[in-house]
Amino acid sequence: MAGFLTRNEVAVLSALATHALLNRFTLDRYSHLVLLAWIAAFGSVAAGEWRADAGFRKALQDTAKIACVYFVTLLTSVMVYRGLFHRLRKFPGPFLPRLSKWFSLSYVIPQFQYHKQVPLLHKQYNSDIVRTGPRELSIIDPAAIPLVHGAQAKCVKGVWYDMFKHMEGSSIHTARSKDLHREHRRVWDRAMNETSLRAYEPRVNNYVRLLISRLEEHENDKSIRMSDWVAFLAFDIMGDVGFSRSFGMLQKGKMDWVIDLLHGGMSAMSVFTHIPYVASLLTRLGAGGDVLRLMEWAHGTLDERKIKQEKQGEKDIVGHLLDCDNKEITSRRALNAAARLLVVAGSDTTSATLTFIFLELARNPHTQRHLRSILPSLSAKPHLEAQDLTHIPYLDAIINETMRLHPVVPSGVQRETPPEGLTLPNGTYIPGHTQIWMPIYAIHHDARNFSSPETFAPERWLVNGTTQAGVISATSSRENSPFDEKTVIVPSRSFSRSTTPSSTASTTPDNFLSETPPTDPTTTPSNPEGTTTYTANPRAFMPFSTGTYKCAGWRLAMIEMRCVVANIVRRWEVRFAVGEDGSDIDEKTQDCFTVNPGKLDVRLVPWDEDE
Ligand code: HEM
Asked: What is the dihedral sign for C-alpha 287, 291, 294, 295?
């Protein structure tokens, strides 16, 4: 009996020691080692029992009892600590997720729309900071953005980025060390600077031309799956600009198998985002065959690319990476990760945003008509090229407003506070090693940042009351927006409309944290004529993220999107196909880190010459 108790005591003490260890070190990347340690420990206990006369069955029973004591103690200790004594205990939030991120899955499954749940949590707890996991906070106060994301911020990328590191090494996207990221970024900045972009532009122009001619062939179709066509375009461009290899999808009118493979695993990301150590463990145990097939594909593509002679003066993105002399960046694994990043980060994001743009245009015919009226006529220039479209504020306003309503990384990106913690401008102290998400969708849909946040109102991005005077643009080279603190946005009167919103796209309530109208100096109240003006706080706008880790490809994305939207809207009015009203996208867009927007079917109706 005394021996049995002793074993129990040892089990209890070991459990407490394990908890202390798990608390002290971030072991997400090493979940397989924790599992192995358990197997080895309990295997040894069973072997010891067996050798000490018990017989096989008894040895198993005794080991199971000890394991029970160990795991019950460990779980109890973890739960009590997380629930009552954790360094984040003072922050409000739902009870169960503070015990384990597994409980967050109830907000994810079955709809995979976590981004729409987060604003509701902030509203429910009436707080800009909500604890959404044991060591995780969601923060929607834009004043915190510079401290969490800004160029001088001390936060680093969070544990989320380690999920697949054992398989692929570090790309610019998954490099958590600031030094390594800086090295990656130097190369990417070269690959995406003005000179490089000018070299890519003819390729973009050619693919947009091809898209238009393929759509002309379908002009009389009653239904065109626009979400597919813009995906074909985005992937073809990225194949060419990335590694001088088109996927040929616009020609074939069909998704390449690689893209199908890529999309196949997307829903899983909605889940693993919350429990990254499980993804790490499962892929080490041999799951994730799709990732391995993708890696094989990337190896093949890169080998082809290396053999191919670069055409003079026409460098692609991988060419820039190959030219770099840092072995960590040019290693086979790192290049492989970069090749897959190019396809995911460069294509899926752009194609999803284009899908959302055409959704909003179909909902807002007056926006299309106005855009068409300010673009050069078809007879003046049959095809508008990238350089024709750099100064059309209303076009950028449409793109911005779409990215505001439908950010393609809707739950934001994870950052970890420095060991000494972080004090927010409002004085709130966030302890060290806290995982922070600043949810982009929630911030973009907060009435304190954007008046009538559910309304599609491109005019909120226009300054000085005219569409031509300039636009608040995501394309600024400034860290977060082109505006300084004192900029006052004066939306155009000519675009003011009746107070009934024309598009209410989401289930998120307007003004979800506060019923009081915004008082920020960047906002303007309703005007006396009974029409509403729409306002924006540009500091809260971050569809491309911001700061050190801001999207490296945002300029390229803007070039692509401007070209596609302008050339389509000049030719056709985009209308919903019969049976389509956009609700499929509202209801089924999945938050899989990047979004999976589902399908959009439209009709392309040539404009009446007189219109
Ligand atoms: C509408 C289109 C796009 C949107 C909304 C978008 C958005 C984003 C966001 C939010 C991030 C931050 C991710 C994170 O920190 O985890 C990011 C990073 C990145 N994006 Fe984009 N992106 C777009 C297009 C592109 C394109 C065309 C490329 C070209 C290859 C690209 C390449 C990258 C890269 C390399 C990073 C990692 C940057 C770093 O960590 O320093 N993106 N993007």
From this structure: negative
**Cα–Cα distance, 246 to 230 (Å, whole number):** 15
**What residue's CA is closest to ligand 1, atom 7?**
544
Q: Which helix (H) or strand (E) holds 430?
A: strand 429-430
Q: Which atom of ligand 1 is nearest to the CA of 181?
A: 41
Rounded distance between C-alpha atoms, residue 448 and residue 507, angstroms:
18
Pocket flag, ligand 1, residue 356 (CB < 6 Å): no
pLDDT tens profile 493-524: 333 343 333 343 333 334 455 433 333 333 33
Decide: 186 in ligand 1 pocket, CB within 6 A.
Answer: no
Q: Beta 136-139 vs 590-592: how paired, if at all?
A: unpaired
- Of all protein residues, the one whose alpha carbon is nearest to atom 1 of ligand 1 is 350
Q: CA angle, 452 as apex, 446 and 455 as ends, to 5°? A: 105
110: preceding bond cis by omega (within 30 degrees)? yes
CA separation for the pair 323, 319 (Å, rounded)? 6
Q: Is 551 annotated as a binding residue?
A: yes
Please give the number of the atom of ligand 1 that sits closest to the Cα of 412: 10
* Distance from Cα 558 to the centre of ligand 1, integer Å: 12
The CA distances from residue 537 to 222, 356, 448, 451, 609, in Å, are: 40, 22, 8, 9, 39
With a 6 Å cutoff on the Cβ, whether 173 touches ligand 1 is: yes
Calpha distance 313→240 (Å, rounded) = 15
Decide: 410 in ligand 1 pocket, CB within 6 A: no
Indicate if ligand 1 lies below 6 Å from the C-beta of 544.
yes
- CA dist 217 and 174 (Å) reads 42
Nearest CA to ligand 1 atom 6: 544
| Pocket residue to mutate for ligand 1, from 189, 349, 440, most atoms within 8 A of Cβ | 349
Tens-digit pLDDT profile for residues 98-136: 999 999 999 998 889 999 999 999 999 999 999 999 999
Q: Under 8 Å CB-to-CB from 96, ≥6 apart: which residues? A: 103, 106
If one residue of 551, 559, 593, 596 were mutated to test the ligand 1 pocket, choosing by the most ligand atoms within 8 A of its CB, it would be 551
Distance 70 CA to ligand 1 centre (A): 44
pTM for this one?
0.89
Alpha-carbon span 455 to 405, nearest angstrom: 8
Residue 551, ligand 1, Cβ within 6 A: yes
Q: Which fold has domain 178-609?
A: Cytochrome p450 (1.10.630)
Concatenating the DSSP letter of every residue in 447-493 gives TTTBSSTTS--GGGGB-TTSTTS-B--TT-SSSS-S--TT------G
**Which ligand 1 atom is nearest residue 593's CA?**
16
Residue 178 structure tokens: 């600031």
pLDDT in tens, 14-58: 999 999 999 888 888 888 999 999 999 999 999 988 888 668 888
Closest of 197, 201, 191 to residue 322, by C-alpha:
191
ipTM confidence: 0.99
- Residue 121 · residue 376 · CB < 8 Å: no
> DSSP alpha helices (H): ranges in 153-288?
165-168, 178-191, 194-217, 226-243, 249-252, 257-264, 266-272, 276-284
Q: How far is the CA of 572 from the centre of ligand 1 (A)?
A: 30
Q: How does DSSP assign 82-136, residue by residue?
A: IIII-TTTTS---HHHHH-GGGGHHHHTTTT-HHHHHHHHHHHTT-SEEEEETTE
